[in-house]
Design goal:
Protein Transport Mog1p, Chain A, seven-stranded antiparallel β-sheet, 431 residues
């Protein structure tokens, strides 16, 4: 989890603590771009346009930056577009959910991760195409490597997308929509580009072999990636890995034409990305609301965040416990809709989270897994009574209530606050 709605690689916008969305980041590819490679860029762009079956309407001009320049630019843009107060609020949300250590610095994690992993980006607002050089930008490595070509191929797809579908439209949705919707749309964009990128690699057997050789021999740093909280890594990778699977499913069903049509009717949930058949069937999410808690808790409490997690982020939350991947998958499938709010005063935070599931069995599986996760996280034994589970820990009190296809989760600093929130949600605290 981190700022959502990142509408370009060099600009960060924050509305919620959840969902890290990227528009163009081929991960962990080596870069060594030279200023006299425009002709090669043009050739690659033409090849990608043919593969993607979209005409290149305008030529692409490339700007090159060193990794140090990118890191400094990222830091400057972070300070401008993701102010410290917003980062601190998001950090409190992440800590409340148990997904970030209190001593971590979300901004520094963000800058380090992007500075290390970004190999290039395309900015739909300015049509700027940037590739990142290895080294210190003193002219080392003038010849394009195979990985450089593959990276640019990915970025060229984004330029094609922008020229034909206007990516700024989806940037606005990713900022204003929920984190679940933001990740879903990002997965469409990145999955499309990744699928075409793979086709570009496979179009030339020699290129594919050299690419694999470079990846095996290239000493690419993953230090920041390795130490980043799992939620940041998971949301970084999701649009590429699951997005590519989603795009492949659409391609198998209707070729590039069906992928093109998806830009007119983009996916709205990560459930649709994980289950493309639900996207094609038009199965969206249920509108779930969490009431304003300020009247129940008092004026000293303010809202830090309200949002929707969706199936993918729920699976990430559940993964933070002693459960197998299969158990997590079973517990997160059958998602129907959800909404949460996090409110806080100077000292404490409260989470109220309502979820709806396709069947009562789905709801029960989620409630059970969530109780296991919370007991593991808080190092306290869940106490079950009927369809309710209570967890009493030193730092928080948690209650999980199962009611048919609905599961309600509340975390509060003490029992009185917990009861007040449950009453505001229409749940009997004695359940």
């Amino acid at each position: 989890m981190s700022p959502k709605g990142v509408n370009r690689m060099k600009t960060r916008s924050s509305k919620s603590a959840f969902a890290l969305g990227f528009l163009a980041v081929p991960l962990m590819l080596g870069t060594a771009f030279a200023q006299d490679n425009q002709e090669i860029y043009n050739e690659i762009a033409d090849e990608v346009a043919e593969i993607r079956e979209l005409e290149l309407l305008d030529p692409l001009e490339v700007d090159e930056k060193s990794r140090d320049e990118l890191r400094e630019e990222t830091r400057e843009d972070l300070e401008e577009d993701y102010p410290l107060e917003e980062r601190e609020d998001d950090q409190r949300v992440l800590v409340a959910f148990g997904l970030l250590n209190p001593e971590d610095d979300l901004g520094e994690l963000f800058v380090d991760l992007l500075g290390e992993q970004v190999a290039g980006y395309y900015d739909p607002e300015t049509d700027e195409m940037v590739v990142v050089r290895s080294g210190d930008g003193d002219g080392d490595g003038d010849e394009l490597s195979v990985s450089d070509r593959v990276t640019f191929a990915h970025e060229a797809v984004h330029a094609l997308q922008d020229q034909h579908f206007d990516l700024e439209i989806y940037t606005d949705i990713r900022i204003e929509g929920t984190s679940d919707e933001s990740l879903a749309i990002t997965a469409l964009i990145e999955g499309d580009a990744t699928l075409a990128q793979i086709d570009y690699i496979l179009s030339d057997v020699r290129l594919a072999r050299l690419f694999l050789d470079e990846l095996e021999s290239n000493d690419v740093s993953t230090e920041s990636l390795d130490r980043a909280p799992p939620i940041l890594v998971a949301t970084l990778l999701f649009p590429y890995t699951e997005g590519q699977v989603f795009a492949q499913y659409l391609f198998d069903e209707g070729g590039w034409d069906l992928i093109n049509e998806a830009y007119e009717n983009p996916p709205t949930t990560t459930e649709q990305i994980l289950h493309p058949e639900k996207y094609l069937d038009g199965e969206g999410g249920i509108d779930v609301r969490v009431p304003d808690l300020s009247e129940a808790l008092g004026d000293e409490w303010r809202t830090l965040d309200d949002d929707t997690m969706g199936q993918f982020l729920i699976s990430v939350v559940l993964s933070d416990a002693d459960m197998s991947e299969d158990q997590v998958q079973v517990a997160s499938e059958g998602w129907g809709g959800d909404a949460y709010t996090v409110v806080a005063n100077d000292d404490d935070a409260v989470i109220a989270w309502s979820t709806e599931w396709d069947t009562e069995e789905d709801a029960a599986e989620f409630a059970t897994a969530l109780a296991v996760r919370e007991g593991f996280r808080l190092d306290a034994d869940p106490e079950a009574e009927g369809d309710s589970v209570l967890i009493l820990a030193d730092e928080a009190v948690v209650q999980i209530v199962l009611d048919g296809t609905a599961v309600t989760y509340v975390q509060a600093p003490d029992g009185n606050t917990l009861e007040a929130v449950l009453e505001a949600l229409g749940r009997d605290p004695r359940t």
